[in-house]
C-alpha cells in the first residue's frame, strides 16, 4: 500500500516530523517497506532559464545556449534538443550531477570544440517518463534557480507500507491516519461526508437474485449522475495516482481509484448508455464470458458472482469491471456502484481466474460496511466537482449489515497477557482514538469495535490494540526461569538416536547432506515407494513429485552430481524422514548413506602407502554397524541375513535384524537401479530405520556392572576349516562360540581363501578362538579337549572339516 | 686406566693389563666373548689362577686370594662396561640405517573428513540453548491434515492468510480430505497441546514445505518454533526468552531487539522481531552492534481460539509462541549467502560450511567453539 505524505496530511494534522512518522508506522504494525523521496533524488536539478540559443558553429543539430540559474554568471551549455530556445524555462543539471536514467556523472566537456558546463534535461533523463522529444518545458512563472522537484510538485515523499491481512482498514490512507493519530503523532481530520440529495429517481433498478443458494452480495447501492463531462482529472489527482504507480485514465475512473486508496472503498463506474435494461446481481451461468477492463476474456462459472444486464454479464462483482460498459470521454450518464461482497467468494473467484486487482485485494480482506453509502456520496461529490452533472437518488438492494457487537474487556487483561502496566485512562484513550465505543468502568469495560474493524473478535484483540499503540517497547522483558524440577533429558530416544547416528557417521568420514523430501516417481518406485497417496498434486517440478520412501535416491543423485563436477569419490549420508503412507504414523526416521568410487573409510584414491580400492558391501556394513552401535542397538546379537530389498545387488547385500525385526540393510546398489537413475558406480549403500531399533531396558541406576578381571592369561588357538562355499561364516563362529559360552570369550575370522588348491565348491575359513580361564591356568589336555569339541561342533553345524 | 688397580705382584699386574687391553680392543660382542672365555672361561687365565689358590699355603693364600679375586672382579667390571658400550654403539649403527621421510603425508582421519550439515548443527545449538531454559523438543509428521496445519491454528477457510502459505497438497483420500505438507511446524504445537496438559515448554524444529522456488525460497526449508503454556506466561516473558536466545545463539554480550506488531492467525497479539545489526562491512553482518535492523522471527500470545481448539481453557491458561527459519538463522550466523546451496549436497559446500563430527555445540564449551 503506497501513499504520499501530502495525501496523508489530508487526513492527519501531524504533530511529529516526517521521520518520526515513518519510524512509528513500523512500530504500530504498519511496516514501512520503503520511502521514496523524489525531492531528495532530484535535489541537484534546478530551474534554468535559457537566455540565448545559437546554432553550434560545428554541428547543424546542436545549439550553444547560455543559461541562467539565478545566481552567478550565465552558464554555457551545448544542447541537442530541438525545443531549446531563448526564454524557455527548463531543468538544468550542473557538472557533478548523476543523471538518474543513465547513472553517469556529468562532467565539463567539449562538444565539437565548444565547452559545455552542464546539461539541460529531458523527462527521460530525469527518470520521470519515456518522454525524450526535447528538454522539459516548465511554466513561464517557474522561479529560476528553484529546486525542480518543488516546481513540479514532486517534493512529496511516497511511503510504502506492508498491511497485514487483518488490517483492511489501513488499505486506505484515512485508516493509516487514524492509527497515527491514536499513537499521538497528530490530529485525525475526519469530517463527516455530507449526504448527496438526489434530484430524480435512478433510471435503472437492481435486484439480488441468488435463488436458494447463499447470497454473495449483502448490499448493492447505486446512483446515476446525468450529464457529466468526462475528461482528464485535475492535476492533484493525477499526481497522486502517478505517485503511487497508477495511470490516470479519466476523471470518472480516477475517482474510483482515489476512493479505493483514500478510503479503502472500491467502487465501480460504468456508462448508463451501455447498460441494457435493469441490473441483476447473481451467480454467473457456467460458460458465460466477460471481456474485462484488463483486455482479457474470462470464462465464468456458477461459483462466481456477477452484475448483469439484459444482454449479459456487465462486470465481475468486486473484482473487475467489463470493458464494454466502461466509461470514456463520451460518457454522459454514469452509474456509480458501491457494494458489499462475500469476502471468501471474492478470494476464490479471484484465485480461480488469476485476477489480482486492487478491488479484489480489499473486498477479500473486508471493507467497512457502514461506509457503503457515505462512500457512494463522497464519490458523487468528487464527480460533481470534476465533471458536473446531476445526481439521482440512491438505489439500494439488500441491506447494510449491522456489525455492532460488545466485547466485555477486563482492564486487567492488558497486564495478564502483555505484562504491560497501562492506566485505565490510557487504555480508554487508545481505544476511543481508534474508533472503539467504550462504556462501563473498572474493572470491566464494554467495548464496541468500529464498523471498519471486522478483525476484532475478543479481548485478546483489544489487548493487541492497546499494546501496539502504547508501544511494545513499554513491555518490560521479564525473567522466565526454568521450573525447579530436576533436569530431565529434553530429547526422546529417537531424537537421541538421530543425533548419535549423525555424529557416528560423520566420524566415519561421511558428509551429511540434506536432500529434498520429494523424489521423482521413477525413483520412488525403484525404492519401494510410488504409492498414489504420496504423489503431490502440485509438485514444484516433475522430478520432485513423490514423497521419498528412502533417503537413497536423493543421496545417489547427489553423488552423481558431485561426480559430474569432478568429485567421483564421495561418501554422503542423511538422517531424515521417509514416508510409507500419508498417515501421521507412517513416517519413519532413517539414517542412510552411500559411498561411491573409492571413498573407503580409511581414505579415498591413490596413496603412496597403498591406493584405496573400490568401495564394497563391507564398507557399507561397517557404516551401518557404527551407526547402530552409536544408537545403542545390541550389535553383538544382530543377525545378518542375505535378503536385502530389491534395490540392492542380490548377492552382495544383507539385512541386519533381531528375529523378524529387520531394521537395516546394506550392500551394493543394484546395477539396474543405478542405470535407471542414470548413475554410475561402484556405489554401496546402507539404510537404518532408527524407529525400529529396540529400546534398551530402563535402568534403575547408572552404576555399571562390576568389572571381573581374570588373573590368568587367555589362550588363543587357530583352526582352518574347509567348508562349502555357501556356508555362512557367521554359522562357523556361532558354532565355535557355542561350545562353551563362558570359556570361549572371542572368535574371529582371520583368513578366507577360495581358489587354487581347494575344491571349486569349497572355501577355507580360518578362525581364531580365545579361551579365557577364570579359576586356574588350563592344562594342555584341557585345551586340546576344548579344541576337539570346537572342531566337532563346527563340523556338525556346517559340515566343515579341519584343514590338514 | 684409572680403574686398573695394580698389585704388588708384577705377574698379576701384567696379566691384568693384557686382559684389559684385549677387552678395550674388542670391536663387537663376539670378540668380547672370546676375551671372556680366554680369561674367565673354564680354562681361562684368571680361572687357572683361581684354581691355583687351592694348592697354596694359608699364608700365601691370605695374600694371593684377595689379589686374584680382586683381579677377577675388576676384569668382570670392565667387561660389563665394554658390553654396554658395544651394545649402545650397535643400536646407534642400526638406527642410523633406519630412516623414513617424515614429510610424506598421512591419511586424513575420517573424523576430519566427515561433516555435519549446518542445519543439523544449528538445530543442536538451538536445543542446547532452550534445554537450558527448560524446554524439551517436540516433533510431528511432515504430512499433515488440514485441521492441524490450518483450522486448529485459526486459519478460517478461504482466508487470504491461508493463500499466503503456498501449500503442497496430496491427493484427496477416501473421505475427500486432502492432506498437505505442513507449511510450518505449528501443527506440532497443536499436537503437543492436545496430548499434554500445561505447563508446556517445547521447541518444535523440523522440515516445512511451500511450493515456492526462487533465489531466496526453496520448496523445502526448516523452522523452529517455541511454545509456552502456563497460567501466567506473558509478552514480557516472551521478550526475555527471545533476548536470552539471541545473545546465546549469536554469542554476543547483548543485542537490541525491536518488536513490531504484526499478524498471524494463531497469535494475538502478534509481533515480528528485528535484531540490531551492523551491515557496514561488505558481505558481512554482525549482531549486537550497529544501527541497522534485521527481521528474524515472528511471535505472539497464543490465540484464544487456538487454545480452545486444542482443548485448553483460555481463561485459565495462556502462553506464547514464536517461530523462525533455521536455515535463515544459520545463514545469518555462519555467513552462507545462498539458501539453495543447503540442499544441493555439493561436497565442496558441505566441507566448507559443515561442522566436524566432534564439534558438539555445548553451552559449557561455547556453542560454536
TrEMBL record, chain A:
<dbReference type="InterPro" id="IPR045060">
    <property type="entry name" value="Phe-tRNA-ligase_IIc_bsu"/>
</dbReference>
<protein>
    <recommendedName>
        <fullName>Phenylalanine--tRNA ligase beta subunit</fullName>
        <ecNumber>6.1.1.20</ecNumber>
    </recommendedName>
</protein>
<keyword id="KW-0963">Cytoplasm</keyword>
<dbReference type="InterPro" id="IPR020825">
    <property type="entry name" value="Phe-tRNA_synthase-like_B3/B4"/>
</dbReference>
<dbReference type="InterPro" id="IPR002547">
    <property type="entry name" value="tRNA-bd_dom"/>
</dbReference>
<comment type="subunit">
    <text>Tetramer of two alpha and two beta subunits.</text>
</comment>
<dbReference type="Pfam" id="PF03147">
    <property type="entry name" value="FDX-ACB"/>
</dbReference>
<dbReference type="Pfam" id="PF17759">
    <property type="entry name" value="tRNA_synthFbeta"/>
</dbReference>
<dbReference type="GO" id="GO:0005524">
    <property type="term" value="F:ATP binding"/>
</dbReference>
<keyword id="KW-0436">Ligase</keyword>
<keyword id="KW-0460">Magnesium</keyword>
<dbReference type="GO" id="GO:0009328">
    <property type="term" value="C:phenylalanine-tRNA ligase complex"/>
</dbReference>
<dbReference type="InterPro" id="IPR033714">
    <property type="entry name" value="tRNA_bind_bactPheRS"/>
</dbReference>
<feature type="binding site">
    <location>
        <position position="464"/>
    </location>
    <ligand>
        <name>Mg(2+)</name>
    </ligand>
</feature>
<dbReference type="InterPro" id="IPR041616">
    <property type="entry name" value="PheRS_beta_core"/>
</dbReference>
<dbReference type="InterPro" id="IPR005146">
    <property type="entry name" value="B3/B4_tRNA-bd"/>
</dbReference>
<comment type="similarity">
    <text>Belongs to the phenylalanyl-tRNA synthetase beta subunit family. Type 1 subfamily.</text>
</comment>
<feature type="binding site">
    <location>
        <position position="455"/>
    </location>
    <ligand>
        <name>Mg(2+)</name>
    </ligand>
</feature>
<feature type="binding site">
    <location>
        <position position="461"/>
    </location>
    <ligand>
        <name>Mg(2+)</name>
    </ligand>
</feature>
<keyword id="KW-0479">Metal-binding</keyword>
<dbReference type="InterPro" id="IPR009061">
    <property type="entry name" value="DNA-bd_dom_put_sf"/>
</dbReference>
<dbReference type="InterPro" id="IPR036690">
    <property type="entry name" value="Fdx_antiC-bd_sf"/>
</dbReference>
TrEMBL record, chain B:
<dbReference type="InterPro" id="IPR010978">
    <property type="entry name" value="tRNA-bd_arm"/>
</dbReference>
<keyword id="KW-0479">Metal-binding</keyword>
<dbReference type="InterPro" id="IPR004188">
    <property type="entry name" value="Phe-tRNA_ligase_II_N"/>
</dbReference>
<keyword id="KW-0963">Cytoplasm</keyword>
<keyword id="KW-0547">Nucleotide-binding</keyword>
<dbReference type="GO" id="GO:0000287">
    <property type="term" value="F:magnesium ion binding"/>
</dbReference>
<keyword id="KW-0460">Magnesium</keyword>
<comment type="subunit">
    <text>Tetramer of two alpha and two beta subunits.</text>
</comment>
<dbReference type="GO" id="GO:0005524">
    <property type="term" value="F:ATP binding"/>
</dbReference>
<keyword id="KW-0030">Aminoacyl-tRNA synthetase</keyword>
<feature type="binding site">
    <location>
        <position position="268"/>
    </location>
    <ligand>
        <name>Mg(2+)</name>
    </ligand>
</feature>
<dbReference type="GO" id="GO:0004826">
    <property type="term" value="F:phenylalanine-tRNA ligase activity"/>
</dbReference>
<dbReference type="InterPro" id="IPR002319">
    <property type="entry name" value="Phenylalanyl-tRNA_Synthase"/>
</dbReference>
<dbReference type="GO" id="GO:0000049">
    <property type="term" value="F:tRNA binding"/>
</dbReference>
<dbReference type="InterPro" id="IPR006195">
    <property type="entry name" value="aa-tRNA-synth_II"/>
</dbReference>
<dbReference type="InterPro" id="IPR022911">
    <property type="entry name" value="Phe_tRNA_ligase_alpha1_bac"/>
</dbReference>
<comment type="similarity">
    <text>Belongs to the class-II aminoacyl-tRNA synthetase family. Phe-tRNA synthetase alpha subunit type 1 subfamily.</text>
</comment>
<protein>
    <recommendedName>
        <fullName>Phenylalanine--tRNA ligase alpha subunit</fullName>
        <ecNumber>6.1.1.20</ecNumber>
    </recommendedName>
</protein>
<dbReference type="InterPro" id="IPR045864">
    <property type="entry name" value="aa-tRNA-synth_II/BPL/LPL"/>
</dbReference>
<dbReference type="GO" id="GO:0006432">
    <property type="term" value="P:phenylalanyl-tRNA aminoacylation"/>
</dbReference>
<dbReference type="GO" id="GO:0005737">
    <property type="term" value="C:cytoplasm"/>
</dbReference>
<feature type="domain" description="Aminoacyl-transfer RNA synthetases class-II family profile">
    <location>
        <begin position="120"/>
        <end position="357"/>
    </location>
</feature>
Amino acid at each position: 500500500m503506497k501513499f504520499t505524505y501530502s495525501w496523508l496530511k489530508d487526513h492527519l494534522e501531524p504533530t511529529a516530523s516526517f521521520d518520526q512518522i515513518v519510524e512509528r508506522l513500523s512500530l504500530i504494525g504498519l511496516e514501512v517497506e520503503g520511502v521514496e523521496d523524489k525531492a531528495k533524488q532530484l535535489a541537484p536539478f534546478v530551474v534554468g532559464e535559457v537566455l540565448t540559443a545559437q546554432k553550434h558553429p560545428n554541428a547543424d543539430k546542436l545549439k550553444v545556449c547560455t543559461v541562467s540559474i539565478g545566481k552567478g554568471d550565465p552558464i554555457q551549455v551545448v544542447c541537442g534538443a530541438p525545443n531549446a530556445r531563448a526564454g524557455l524555462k527548463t531543468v538544468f543539471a550542473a557538472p557533478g550531477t548523476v543523471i538518474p536514467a543513465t547513472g553517469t556523472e556529468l562532467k565539463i566537456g567539449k562538444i565539437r570544440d565548444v565547452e559545455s558546463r552542464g546539461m539541460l534535461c529531458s523527462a527521460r533523463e530525469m527518470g520521470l517518463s519515456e518522454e525524450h522529444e526535447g528538454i522539459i518545458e516548465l511554466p513561464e512563472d517557474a522561479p529560476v534557480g528553484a529546486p525542480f522537484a518543488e516546481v513540479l510538485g514532486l517534493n512529496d515523499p511516497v511511503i510504502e507500507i506492508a498491511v497485514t491481512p487483518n488490517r483492511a482498514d489501513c488499505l486506505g490512507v484515512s485508516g493509516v491516519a487514524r492509527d497515527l493519530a491514536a499513537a499521538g503523532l497528530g490530529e485525525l481530520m475526519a469530517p463527516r461526508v455530507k449526504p448527496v440529495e438526489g434530484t430524480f429517481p435512478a433510471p435503472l433498478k437492481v435486484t439480488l437474485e441468488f435463488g436458494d443458494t447463499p447470497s454473495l452480495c449483502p448490499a448493492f447501492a447505486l446512483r446515476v449522475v446525468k450529464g457529466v463531462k468526462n475528461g482528464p482529472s485535475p492535476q492533484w489527482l493525477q499526481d497522486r495516482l502517478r505517485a503511487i504507480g497508477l495511470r490516470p485514465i479519466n476523471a470518472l475512473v480516477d475517482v474510483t481509484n482515489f476512493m479505493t486508496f483514500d478510503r479503502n472503498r472500491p467502487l465501480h463506474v460504468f456508462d448508463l448508455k451501455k447498460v441494457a435494461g435493469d441490473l441483476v446481481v447473481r451467480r454467473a451461468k457456467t460458460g458465460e464470458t466477460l471481456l474485462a477492463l484488463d483486455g482479457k476474456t474470462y470464462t465464468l462459472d456458477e461459483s462466481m458472482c456477477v452484475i448483469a444486464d439484459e444482454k449479459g454479464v456487465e462486470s465481475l462483482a468486486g473484482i473487475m469491471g467489463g470493458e464494454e460498459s466502461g466509461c470514456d470521454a463520451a460518457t454522459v450518464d454514469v452509474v456509480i456502484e458501491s457494494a458489499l461482497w462475500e469476502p471468501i467468494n471474492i478470494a476464490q473467484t479471484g484465485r480461480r481466474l488469476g485476477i489480482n486487482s486492487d478491488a479484489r485485494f480489499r473486498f477479500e480482506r473486508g471493507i467497512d460496511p457502514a461506509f457503503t453509502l457515505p462512500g457512494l456520496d463522497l464519490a458523487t461529490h468528487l464527480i460533481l466537482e470534476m465533471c458536473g452533472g446531476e445526481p439521482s437518488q440512491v438505489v439500494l438492494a439488500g441491506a447494510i449489515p449491522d456489525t455492532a457487537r460488545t466485547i466485555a474487556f477486563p482492564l486487567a487483561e492488558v497486564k495478564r497477557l502483555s505484562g504491560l502496566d497501562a492506566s485505565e485512562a490510557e487504555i480508554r484513550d487508545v481505544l476511543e482514538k481508534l474508533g472503539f465505543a467504550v462504556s462501563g468502568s473498572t474493572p470491566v469495560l464494554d467495548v464496541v469495535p468500529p464498523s471498519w474493524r471486522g478483525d476484532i473478535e475478543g479481548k485478546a484483540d483489544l489487548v493487541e490494540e492497546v499494546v501496539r499503540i502504547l508501544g511494545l517497547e513499554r513491555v518490560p522483558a521479564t525473567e522466565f526461569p526454568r521450573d525447579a524440577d530436576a533436569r530431565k533429558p529434553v530429547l526422546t530416544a529417537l531424537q537421541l538416536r538421530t543425533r548419535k547416528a549423525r555424529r557416528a557417521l560423520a566420524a566415519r568420514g561421511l558428509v551429511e547432506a540434506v536432500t529434498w523430501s520429494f523424489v521423482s516417481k521413477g525413483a520412488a518406485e525403484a525404492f519401494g515407494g510410488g504409492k498414489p497417496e504420496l504423489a503431490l498434486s502440485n509438485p514444484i517440478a516433475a522430478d520432485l513429485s513423490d514423497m521419498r520412501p528412502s533417503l537413497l535416491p536423493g543421496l545417489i543423485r547427489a553423488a552423481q552430481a558431485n561426480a559430474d563436477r569432478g568429485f567421483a569419490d564421495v561418501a554422503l549420508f542423511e538422517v531424515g524422514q521417509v514416508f510409507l503412507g500419508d498417515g501421521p504414523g507412517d513416517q519413519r526416521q532413517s539414517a542412510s548413506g552411500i559411498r561411491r568410487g573409492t571413498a573407503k573409510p580409511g581414505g579415498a584414491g591413490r596413496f603412496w602407502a597403498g591406493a584405496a580400492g573400490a568401495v564394497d558391501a563391507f564398507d557399507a556394513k561397517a557404516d551401518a554397524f557404527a551407526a547402530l552401535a552409536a544408537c545403542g542397538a545390541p550389535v553383538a546379537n544382530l543377525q545378518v541375513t542375505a535378503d536385502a530389498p530389491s534395490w540392492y545387488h542380490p548377492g552382495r547385500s544383507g539385512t541386519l535384524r533381531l528375529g523378524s525385526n529387520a531394521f537395516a540393510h546394506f550392500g551394493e546398489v543394484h546395477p539396474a537401479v543405478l542405470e535407471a537413475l542414470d548413475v554410475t558406480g561402484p556405489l554401496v549403500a546402507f539404510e537404518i530405520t532408527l524407529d525400529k531399533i529396540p529400546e534398551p531396558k530402563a535402568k534403575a541406576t547408572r552404576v555399571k556392572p562390576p568389572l571381573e578381571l581374570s588373573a590368568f592369561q587367555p589362550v588363543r588357538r587357530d583352526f582352518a576349516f574347509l567348508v562349502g562355499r555357501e556356508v555362512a561364516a557367521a554359522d562357523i563362529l556361532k558354532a565355535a562360540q557355542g561350545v562353551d559360552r563362558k570359556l570361549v570369550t572371542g572368535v574371529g575370522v582371520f583368513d578366507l581363501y577360495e581358489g587354487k588348491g581347494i575344491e571349486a565348491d569349497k572355501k577355507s575359513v580360518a578362525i581364531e578362538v580365545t579361551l579365557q580361564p577364570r579359576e586356574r591356568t588350563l592344562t594342555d589336555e584341557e585345551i586340546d579337549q576344548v579344541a576337539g569339541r570346537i572342531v566337532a561342533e563346527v563340523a556338525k553345524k556346517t559340515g566343515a572339516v579341519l584343514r590338514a | 686406566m684409572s680403574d686398573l688397580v695394580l698389585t704388588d705382584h708384577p705377574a698379576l699386574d701384567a696379566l691384568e693389563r693384557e686382559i684389559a687391553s684385549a677387552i678395550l680392543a674388542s670391536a663387537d660382542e663376539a670378540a668380547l666373548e672370546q676375551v671372556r672365555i680366554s680369561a674367565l672361561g673354564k680354562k681361562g687365565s684368571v680361572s687357572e689362577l683361581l684354581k691355583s689358590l687351592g694348592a697354596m699355603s694359608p699364608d700365601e693364600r691370605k695374600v694371593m686370594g684377595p689379589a686374584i679375586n680382586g683381579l677377577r672382579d675388576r676384569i668382570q667390571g670392565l667387561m660389563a662396561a665394554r658390553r654396554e658400550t658395544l651394545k649402545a654403539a650397535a643400536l646407534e649403527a642400526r638406527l642410523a640405517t633406519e630412516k623414513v621421510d617424515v614429510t610424506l603425508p598421512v591419511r586424513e582421519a575420517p573424523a576430519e573428513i566427515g561433516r555435519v550439515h549446518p542445519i543439523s548443527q544449528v538445530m543442536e545449538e538451538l536445543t542446547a540453548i532452550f534445554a537450558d531454559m527448560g524446554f524439551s523438543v517436540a516433533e510431528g509428521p511432515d504430512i499433515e491434515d488440514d485441521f492441524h496445519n490450518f483450522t486448529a491454528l485459526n486459519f478460517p477457510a478461504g482466508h487470504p492468510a491461508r493463500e499466503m502459505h503456498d501449500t503442497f497438497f496430496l491427493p484427496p483420500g477416501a473421505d475427500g480430505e486432502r492432506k498437505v505438507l505442513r507449511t510450518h511446524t505449528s501443527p506440532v504445537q497443536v499436537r503437543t497441546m492436545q496430548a499434554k496438559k500445561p505447563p508446556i515448554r517445547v521447541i518444535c524444529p523440523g522440515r516445512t514445505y511451500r511450493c515456492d522456488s526462487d533465489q531466496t525460497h526453496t520448496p523445502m526449508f526448516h523452522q523452529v518454533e517455541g511454545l509456552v503454556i502456563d497460567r501466567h506466561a506473558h509478552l514480557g516473558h516472551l521478550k526475555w526468552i527471545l533476548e536470552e536466545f539471541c545473545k546465546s545463539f549469536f554469542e554476543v554480550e547483548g543485542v537490541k531487539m525491536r518488536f513490531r506488531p504484526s499478524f498471524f492467525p494463531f497469535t494475538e497479539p502478534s509481533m515480528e522481531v528485528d535484531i540490531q545489526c551492523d551491515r557496514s562491512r561488505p558481505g558481512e553482518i554482525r549482531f549486537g552492534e550497529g544501527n541497522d535492523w534485521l527481521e528474524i522471527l515472528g511471535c505472539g500470545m497464543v490465540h484464544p481460539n487456538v487454545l480452545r481448539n486444542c482443548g485448553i481453557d483460555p481463561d485459565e491458561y495462556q502462553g506464547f509462541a514464536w517461530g523462525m527459519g533455521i536455515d535463515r538463522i544459520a545463514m545469518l550466523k555462519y555467513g552462507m549467502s545462498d539458501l539453495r546451496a543447503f540442499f544441493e549436497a555439493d561436497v565442496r559446500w558441505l566441507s566448507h560450511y559443515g561442522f566436524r563430527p566432534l564439534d558438539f555445540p555445548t553451552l559449557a564449551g561455547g556453542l560454536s567453539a
